[in-house]
Each structure stands twice: as structure tokens, then as C-alpha cells.
Design a protein that fits this description.
By secondary structure, this protein is an all-beta fold. The protein has no helices and 29 strands. It starts with a strand and ends with a strand.
Length: 174
């Protein structure tokens, strides 16, 4: 998928909290590549929600989201759950609000993969734990990235990453 965009709001209408919600795509399957895409609307959902993509198994390059995201668990300003995929040259500027855990300004949960040159500028507020300005839970490699928003949560809260179990090189929060 290349050069796609949307300017709509996505709102959860089902009682299930275990669906995938994104400003552009709910879930991206293995080996799919998303490049030069953006979303500017807000997302209000349950779990696995992102300003652009709810859950990503593929590759995301040169893409961004600017809308606010509201959800429960695995919530990110750009991607809710990065599951064995990769991300490069991406950003999110919207605020993220959650009532659960694994919440970040860019990415809620990173599962053992590589992220390069990304950033988030929105504020992140949650009543849960593993809350970060860029990434809520980080278990892969991240390089040359930063976060600038305010962060508030109940446990494992950080300006950059709420819980860090991987490698970070040349990263910062201000």
C-alpha cells in the first residue's frame, strides 16, 4: 500500500474490546509494506488501536498520524501493536488517552523488531501501566528516535519508554 491517506474519524461500535482499529488500516498482515501514508482523523476504540494502524505485522515507512487516539490496551498514536514488523521514518503528533496498559505516543507495544528514525510529540495519559512518550512496552531495537510530550500513568511510566526490554541507540525524551 503506497501513497494512501484518510481524513475520517474511526469509532468503535461493537461491544468487543479485542478488535483492531486504525485511522487507515485495522490490521496489516505478514510481509505487507505500507509506505508514504497518513491519517488525520481521531480513533476511539478498545484494544489494538493506532492513529494509522491497529496491529502491524509488516513494514511501515515514511508515514504519520496526527489525530488523537482513545482506547484501552496496546494503544499508540501511530500503531497500537508492532508484532514482528519494522518501522522507519514515521511520526505521530496526536494525544493518546487510555484506561489500560501498553500505551505510547507513537507505539503501544513493540514485539522484538526494529524501529528507526521515529518520533512522537503528543501527550500520553493512562490509568494503566507501561506508559511511554514514544513506546509503552519496548522489546526490540530502536534507533535515532525521540518523544516530546507529557506522560502520565500508574506504573512503569517514562518520557521515552514505559518498560524497556530491548536496545535503544541515540534516543531521547524532552
Amino acid at each position: 500500500v503506497t501513497n494512501c491517506n484518510t481524513n475520517v474519524s474511526v469509532i468503535k461500535t461493537t461491544n468487543s474490546n479485542y478488535s483492531y482499529y486504525g485511522g487507515l488500516i485495522g490490521i496489516v498482515s505478514n510481509s505487507a509494506v505500507i509506505s508514504d501514508c497518513y491519517a488525520v482523523g481521531s480513533v476511539t476504540a478498545g484494544n489494538y488501536a493506532g492513529g494509522l494502524i491497529g496491529e502491524l505485522y509488516g513494514t511501515l515507512n515514511n508515514s504519520y498520524a496526527t489525530g488523537n487516539v482513545i482506547g484501552i490496551d496496546r494503544i499508540g498514536g501511530l500503531v497500537g501493536y508492532l508484532n514482528s514488523g519494522s518501522m522507519e521514518m514515521c511520526y505521530a503528533t496526536g494525544d493518546v488517552n487510555s484506561t489500560g496498559g501498553y500505551v505510547g505516543g507513537l507505539l503501544g507495544y513493540q514485539n522484538g523488531n526494529t524501529i528507526n528514525k521515529v518520533y512522537a510529540t503528543g501527550d500520553v495519559v493512562s490509568t494503566g501501566s507501561d506508559i511511554g512518550g514514544l513506546i509503552g512496552y519496548q522489546s526490540g531495537t530502536i534507533n535515532n528516535s525521540f518523544a516530546t510530550g507529557n506522560v502520565k500513568g500508574n506504573g512503569n511510566v517514562g518520557g521515552f519508554s514505559g518498560r524497556h526490554n530491548g536496545t535503544a541507540n541515540y534516543c531521547y525524551a524532552i
